[in-house]
Design a protein that fits this description.
2 domains, N-(1-d-carboxylethyl)-l-norvaline Dehydrogenase, domain 2, binds nicotinamide-adenine-dinucleotide, globular, Rossmann fold, 14% strand
């Protein structure tokens, strides 16, 4: 592992998964969130995930040893000694700008700043900081402990040294990296999200019921999850935010978000994380 101390900003489903994977590969992780409740949930979620991996014989050491390397942080100043910060907060440009302004102030000038954004311009986020050459997109897939891919995105001014160091990190955590150019949605969400949005249009227009849409795509095209089920898994707020970035950034009406998706988000039906989206998820 080429980074010893890594900050993860945001402890939602992605941040907690990233923290777990980094700590499982010997990094000391500072996990920060503005919500104390979310930090507690993240800790419990990581413990549960590590226990499951241990049961399956897929963990090299005791879960408690991995947990010892994850420090929960409730003030951003607490991450000041990190050599790398990976931001995984809500998919919102203003929130991410605020985070990177602060990280740029408190971290040593040698530290790398990375965003796990699904769609927002890496170049624009880098421009908020005084170190655009040390700024990079590192797009993990959900759930992070299981999914192999990490999409690496070079901003306009990202240096080759920064990219090389991130490629080494991806290899050190046993993932496969691919490189994408810095355009809205990069590669994975440029392709995936319009498909999910189209599935929501199909539901909205009554082309099929949700079961027909999901079963059709699972059995008909060999997708492991149906698109509506997957949208619930990703988070409908995140799906909407990504569609809005694609629509605004590419200026083509084919990327307009389905009105039904907008209504679900407005109603607080965010998918798994809120207990209800296209399907219902009893909260444990
Ligand atoms: N959900 C997915 O499948 C997926 C996949 C790849 C990338 N992403 C990206 O990862 C990021 C996080 O997504 P998620 O699904 O984990 O969302 P989430 O809603 O589960 O978690 C977001 C977290 O950010 C925290 N947060 C908000 N403002 C903050 C701030 N100022 N400082 C620190 N923490 C703050 C929230 O409290 C919350 O815990 C987004 O950019 C998203 O686009 C998501």
């Amino acid at each position: 592992m080429n980074f010893k101390k890594i900050a993860v900003i945001g402890s939602g489903q992605m941040g907690s998964g990233i923290a777990q994977v980094l700590a499982s590969h010997s990094a000391d992780v500072f996990l920060f969130d503005i919500s104390g409740d979310q930090l507690k949930k993240a800790k419990a979620g990581i413990e549960k995930s590590l226990s499951k991996l241990q049961e399956k014989g897929r963990l090299q050491e005791e879960p408690s040893k991995v947990m010892e390397r994850i420090q929960l942080i409730d003030q951003m100043e607490g991450v000041a000694s990190a050599e790398l910060a990976i931001e995984a907060a809500t998919e919102n440009f203003a929130i991410k700008c605020e985070i990177f302004k602060k990280l740029d102030q408190i971290l040593p000038s040698s530290s790398i700043l990375a965003s796990n954004t699904s769609s927002i311009s890496i170049t624009k986020l880098a421009a908020i900081t005084n170190r655009p050459e040390k700024f990079v997109g590192v797009h993990f897939m959900n759930p992070v402990p299981i999914m192999k891919l990490v999409e690496l995105i070079s901003g306009q001014l990202t240096s080759s040294d920064t990219m090389t160091r991130m490629e080494a990190l991806v290899a050190a955590i046993d993932k496969t990296g691919t490189k994408s150019a810095d355009y809205p949605g990069f590669v994975v969400n440029r392709i995936l999200m319009p498909m999910i949005n189209e599935a929501i249009f199909a539901l909205y227009e009554g082309v099929g019921c949700k079961e027909a849409i999901d079963t059709g795509m699972k059995l008909g095209t060999n997708h492991p999850m149906g698109p509506l089920e997957l949208a619930d898994f990703i988070g409908l707020d995140t799906c909407l935010a990504i569609m809005e970035v694609l629509h605004e950034g590419l200026g083509d009406s084919k990327y307009r978000a389905c009105p039904l998706l907008k209504n679900y988000v407005a109603a607080g039906l965010l998918g798994r994380k809120s207990g209800r989206g296209f399907y219902e998820y009893p909260q444990k």
